[in-house]
Write a structure and sequence with these properties.
The complex is a heterodimer. Chain A is built from six helices and two strands, in the order E-H-H-H-H-H-E-H. By secondary structure, chain A is mostly helical. In chain A, helix 1 runs parallel beside helix 6 and helix 3 runs antiparallel to helix 4. Chain A is elongated, with a radius of gyration of 21 Å. By secondary structure, chain B is mostly helical. In chain B, about 65% of the residues lie in helices and about 5% in strands. Chain B contains 19 helices and five strands. In chain B, strands 1-2 form a two-stranded antiparallel ribbon. In chain B, strands 3-4 form a two-stranded antiparallel sheet. The two termini of chain B are about 30 Å apart. Classes of the chains: A mainly alpha, B mainly alpha. The interface between A and B is large, with 69 and 90 residues.
């Protein structure tokens, strides 16, 4: 090994950092790109298959029901308020705030997962009826796996936060969890428009 | 202990004590448990490389059997059904189990060493990626030995691959084993991007990064944007087959061409995903063996980036025979021609470097020269395909087979073999034998040309791809026999390589730290490197750190040696920014990979596989992420209990 000449000491650098200074933030961003691509492919396939039909939805298929999906979309948007709160509380190292916000988000995540089941019913078409049904179900399922993962992670984090012991960097982890939440909930809005609203005007 | 104590001269008091403690902290636990739970990028990189090479040999043997079948007209080595499985297995093995994994593996091994890091950014994810890849490969080969090997070609076009024309489970094996390998490739991509962005040695600004690291960075981004396409496409195909969706079924509004778009949007970048790291190998080898930095560093980096971008604009040239609108065809013709520009710039830069340097014609350099010759031939025929009228004449003929083997063997296997000869001393501490290496090179070089050059003529004569035999009256017998003779030479060449590796591992000349007098950081540490890579994290002051200072290397101290401390630096300038503690070895990545395997394999048989596999996977991910045995010494505790 080459002999070395020490030119600096880094012992005093911080050990808990947030946002783009943290490794996990970049890792989360990587997975957001991958999963975002998957959802984009579902949407691209949706419009590609649209060209094979004269009407959309195809003949003899009802348009999707809108009550549950609209409620879900609203909930997805609103859920960003407690998650943003958790995010800010974590950078302030405000453990009580993070705990409460995560508890609220866990409850919301469970509700949204249950609502996803009813959203499938709202499509008014089966996956095996025609290509329209297939691609609508696939889009909901693809996003559903993200929702399920985020629900599991948020609940696990909540348990950890209440059970302890908690280190500084767990709060940085909570902040990275928030980043994924923003993506998961935010990306649902255009998907909701495509899957549930576009059959009304395409 | 925290930072090592230092004398006034700035030199650590006792390097040996520091090394002993680092070794204690970073080494892999002994025994099989230690092996299974290892998170060391070198340990995982090595097993990744060995596994990929085993698959390379299996894929090569499949090719050998096919060449034996085609050596003469109406031969009977393989029947049509077995032949279908053989060519599909050969293509899948070489593309999904060898070409991408092996360059990824070399990257996972080398990148942390080249950028002066202790490990990759997410060591457990790295282990998970390897296990998932291994599971995918085993799954494919077990299915093959059970006569359920995929038989519809590596791109498995529908409707042939759909439920109507391919009943049984063969295509499901195809779809699912791709999912395994794509997951492995994607996690490795995230791994490499974050490692390169955030774990570079202080001072290694983006414009001082070795060209191989640039190549891996570009490749990782290409993987990130390309692989989701094939992973999604194969899931849609699996659903068409398992739960009767209609994505590719025209009777219910589905579309067979949708499959081709989704597949080739991945499939064309795939070629460059394989090629780009090879370009990195070539740049490193050229620099070392001409004893000077590569000519035109900014042009080289910009060429890599533009290859990355342009490779996403070419996919439709695989679909010229599908009756696309003419405007679309013209666009893709232009894009296909355009990508030759950055490829050409790289070739000219290498030639300029060699021209102005003092080349040493050692084995790695021979492979680089072989690469230039083969890749240029493959590139020229590639430009010919950009012309729609020519493409339609030779579509699905042996001309295509000749072209892509020149590109893939020339563009990927030759640089890879050169890279083996170049970095083998670093990985094992011993040199490969030079004389055997020369025989290895010439046998493979002559063999490849003898095998694939005649295929151009066979294609022009009209011999289609993927036929298990042909009639004597076609007149294709002589050239096919010549191709088979060439394949024998290639097999002998690869055999020599294996013998060389086996012999050198035991009896090779000891390499020392830097046997080639190279310029990048991996040569600053011992061969093989210790578990912690560097005693002190080096500080980089130029693009060729080992050529700048012959003796002492600047470094930083202050990382703890009793926990797995790593240094995180800023993205552009690589200024020290924070310290991060890496997790200890863990069995959870292996368990998560087992759960992933259960999920994917059961899904082939029943949709209930999701109900069984998903909770298992979530459980293992929970075990993985849950903090075990906390070390409270370096972290401020927010609160002890809840």
């Amino acid at each position: 090994m080459r002999p070395t000449r020490i030119v600096a000491d880094v012992a005093t650098l911080p050990r808990t950092v947030f946002g783009h200074r943290s490794l996990m933030w970049w890792g989360t961003l990587g997975f957001i790109v991958i999963e975002g691509s998957t959802l984009f492919i579902c949407v691209a396939s949706y419009f590609y298959l649209r060209r094979n039909f004269s009407t959309w939805p195809p003949e003899h298929v009802f348009r999707p029901a809108l009550v549950v999906p609209t409620l879900q979309a609203a909930l997805m948007l609103l859920s960003n308020i407690p998650m943003r709160w958790a995010d800010r509380a974590s950078t302030r190292m405000d453990i009580r705030g993070v705990r409460l916000a995560f508890l609220i988000c866990s409850v919301l995540a469970v509700i949204m997962t249950v609502l996803r089941w009813f959203e499938f019913q709202s499509l008014n078409v089966r996956w095996d009826s025609n290509a329209y049904g297939s691609v609508a179900w696939a889009t909901l399922t693809a996003h559903g796996t993200l929702l399920l993962l985020e629900t599991a992670e948020t609940i696990a984090f909540t348990v950890l936060l209440f059970k302890g012991p908690i280190e500084d960097r767990d709060l940085a982890g909570a902040s990275d969890n928030a980043l994924y939440w923003y993506f998961m909930s935010g990306v649902w809005i255009p998907l909701y428009v495509v899957v549930f609203l576009s059959p009304y005007f395409m | 202990m925290s930072a090592p104590s230092r004398t006034d001269a700035g030199r650590p008091a006792d390097d040996d004590a520091v090394r002993r403690q680092l070794d204690e902290t970073w080494r892999q636990a002994p025994g099989i448990w230690g092996w299974l739970s290892s998170v060391d990028h070198k340990s995982i990189g090595k097993r990744y490389i060995v596994t990929a090479m085993v698959f390379f040999i299996l894929g090569g043997l499949e090719a050998g059997v096919m060449r034996a079948q085609l050596a003469r007209p109406e031969n009977s080595v393989l029947g049509p059904d077995a032949y279908n499985q053989f060519f599909t297995m050969h293509g899948m093995t070489m593309m999904f189990l060898f070409a991408v994994p092996v360059v990824t593996a070399v990257g996972l091994y080398l990148v942390p060493l080249m950028i002066g890091a202790r490990n990759v950014a997410f060591p457990r994810l790295n282990a998970y990626g390897y296990w998932v890849y291994l599971a995918g490969g085993l799954f494919l080969y077990i299915s093959f030995f059970l006569n359920t090997g995929p038989d519809t070609g590596w791109f498995s076009y529908v409707p042939l691959a759909g439920p109507e024309f391919s009943p049984g489970k063969r295509v499901d094996v195809y779809a699912q084993s791709i999912t395994f390998t794509e997951i492995a490739a994607l996690v490795a991509a995230v791994e490499l991007i974050v490692t390169i962005f955030k774990n570079r040695a202080p001072g290694m600004t983006l414009n001082r990064m070795p060209l191989f690291v640039w190549a891996m960075l570009v490749q990782a981004f290409m993987v990130l944007f390309a692989m989701p396409w094939v992973a999604t496409a194969t899931q849609l195909l699996a659903m068409d087959r398992l739960v009767a969706t209609h994505f590719f079924n025209p009777a219910e509004g589905g579309d067979a061409l949708l499959w081709q778009h989704l597949f080739w949007f991945f499939g064309h970048p795939e070629v460059y995903i394989i090629l780009t790291p090879a370009l990195g190998f070539v740049s490193m080898i050229v620099a070392t063996f001409t004893r000077g930095p590569v000519f035109g560093y900014p042009a080289m980096v910009l060429s890599l980036l533009s290859i990355g971008f342009l490779s996403f604009g070419l996919w439709v040239h695989h679909m010229f025979a599908t009756g696309l609108p003419q405007l679309g065809q013209s666009f893709f013709t232009a894009a296909s021609m355009m990508i030759t520009v950055p490829s050409g710039i790289q070739i000219f830069c290498w030639i300029a470097t060699i021209w102005s340097g003092r080349p040493r014609f050692s084995v790695p350099f021979l492979f680089v020269l072989g690469f230039v010759v083969l890749f240029v031939i493959g590139g020229v025929t590639g430009v010919m395909f950009a012309s729609v009228s020519f493409d339609q004449q030779v579509h699905d003929t042996y001309f295509v087979v000749a072209h892509f083997h020149y590109v893939l063997i020339g563009g990927s296997v030759f640089p890879l073999l050169g890279a083996f000869y170049y970095w083998f001393p670093k990985i094992t501490g011993r040199m490969l034998d030079e004389r055997l290496g020369r025989w290895n090179f010439w046998l493979v070089f002559v063999g490849v040309n003898l095998t694939f050059f005649p295929m151009h003529q066979l294609g022009l004569d009209g011999m289609p791809r993927r036929v298990y035999t042909y009639l004597a009256g076609t007149g294709w017998g002589r050239l096919n026999l010549l191709a088979t003779a060439g394949a024998v030479l290639v097999v002998l060449g690869v055999l020599l390589f294996v013998i060389n590796v086996a012999r050198s591992l035991r009896r090779g000349v000891r390499a020392g730290d830097d046997p080639w007098a190279a310029d990048t950081l991996e040569w600053a540490t011992t061969s093989p490197p210790p578990p912690y890579n560097f005693t002190y994290i080096p500080v980089v002051e130029s693009g060729s750190p080992l050529w700048e200072r012959s003796e002492e290397l600047a470094a930083v101290s202050g990382l703890r040696t009793d926990v797995r401390d790593v240094l995180v630096t800023t993205l552009l300038d690589a200024r020290p920014d924070s310290l991060h503690r890496h997790p200890p070895p863990s069995i959870w990545p292996l368990l998560a990979a087992v759960a992933t395997t259960i999920l994917f394999v059961t899904l082939i048989f029943t949709p209930w596989g999701a109900v069984i596999g998903t909770p298992l996977l979530l459980l293992t991910l929970l075990g993985w992420g849950w903090p075990h045995g906390r070390d409270h010494r370096e972290q401020r505790m927010v609160e002890q209990t809840g």
